[in-house]
Automatic annotation (TrEMBL):
Lineage: Eukaryota, Metazoa, Chordata, Craniata, Vertebrata
EC number: 2.7.11.1
PANTHER family per the UniProt record, alphabetical: SERINE/THREONINE-PROTEIN KINASE 16, SERINE_THREONINE-PROTEIN KINASE 16
GO MF entries: kinase activity
Reactions this protein catalyses: L-seryl-[protein] + ATP = O-phospho-L-seryl-[protein] + ADP + H(+); L-threonyl-[protein] + ATP = O-phospho-L-threonyl-[protein] + ADP + H(+)
Record bears the keyword Aminoacyl-tRNA synthetase: no
Keywords in alphabetical order: ATP-binding, Kinase, Nucleotide-binding, Serine/threonine-protein kinase, Transferase
CDD domains associated with the record: STKc_16 (cd13986)
SMART domains (UniProt xref): S_TKc
Protein name, as recorded: non-specific serine/threonine protein kinase
Organism per entry: Ilyodon furcidens (goldbreast splitfin)
Length: 271
């Protein structure tokens, strides 16, 4: 495990004997923060993800996220540069040093297109989608599932190479549910860790005896493809309106009238 030595007055941290200077905040979530940092020796920018571990379970979840990053060496999955668990003031934080990808997330790119009234070109969609499939296949080949695939969890570099990130919800691809108690446990976990508008139908009402597997990612993958085509996910508006996404996913997706041409193109796609 990496060691964090200090946060000094100059706004720097040292992990594994390498110093990083704070530059600016990038993002903030419920229990995590992402800062832009600069390596003191190499001058390169990195993303520092700080995860607040409020109890033993949260620390184990952060440790699992670290292990998931370390498991893969794939150009479509975000790598881990260094990490450390830091105890300060009775609290524990996990610090993850990750590559910084300047262009940002797939969602941020789609938002800019929507603001300009433009659509993503078909060849760009296919290139990004193919890369996402490649990263997802690498995860599935190891016997795991991402469980929270969505446009905000896909980074894009300057060459439109997609990189899957936020591996904190990953777990074994195949989950055998035996009984109503286990079903409720899986369902509650999914409600906390799997974004509702990209969540597979079988995770809304988990059956008492069933097998949940990596096909949940394939559902999310389809929602991501739809979002690249339409600039919004198939269930985003339903969620924003406060309507039931759990009910909506039981019915076929409706293609907007202005986008009917995509339907014919999708029938001819093969990956």
């Amino acid at each position: 495990m990496g060691q964090a030595l200090c946060i000094c007055s100059r706004g720097a941290i040292t992990i594994d004997n390498k110093k990083y200077y704070f530059v600016q905040k990038l993002d903030e979530g419920g229990f995590s923060y992402v800062d832009l940092v600069e390596g003191a020796k190499d001058g390169r920018f990195y993303a520092l993800k700080r995860i607040l571990c409020h109890d033993r379970q949260a620390r184990q979840e952060a440790q699992t996220e670290v292990e998931m990053h370390q498991m893969f060496n794939h150009h479509n999955i975000l790598s881990l540069v260094a990490y450390a668990f830091v105890d300060s003031g009775g609290k524990t934080e996990a610090w993850l040093i990750l590559p910084y990808i300047r262009k940002g997330t797939l969602w941020s790119v789609l938002e800019k297109l929507r603001d300009k009234g433009s659509l993503m070109p078909e060849n760009q969609i296919l290139k990004i989608f193919s890369g996402i499939c490649s990263g997802l296949k690498a995860i599935h080949d190891k016997g795991y599932a991402h469980r929270d695939l969505k446009p905000t969890n896909v980074l894009l570099d300057e060459g439109d190479r997609p990189v899957l990130m936020d591996l904190g919800s990953m777990n074994c691809a195949r989950i055998e549910v035996r009984g109503s108690r286990e079903a409720m446990t899986v369902q509650d976990w999914a409600a906390q860790r799997c974004t509702i508008s990209y969540r597979a139908p079988e995770l809304f009402n988990v059956e008492s005896h069933c097998i949940i597997d990596e096909r949940t990612d394939i559902w999310s993958l389809g929602c991501v493809l739809y979002c690249m085509m339409m600039l919004e996910g198939p269930y985003d508006m339903i969620f924003q309106k406060g309507d039931s996404v759990a009910l909506a996913v039981q019915n076929p997706v409706t293609i907007p009238p202005t986008c009917r041409g995509w339907t014919m193109k999708l029938k001819h796609l093969s990956f």
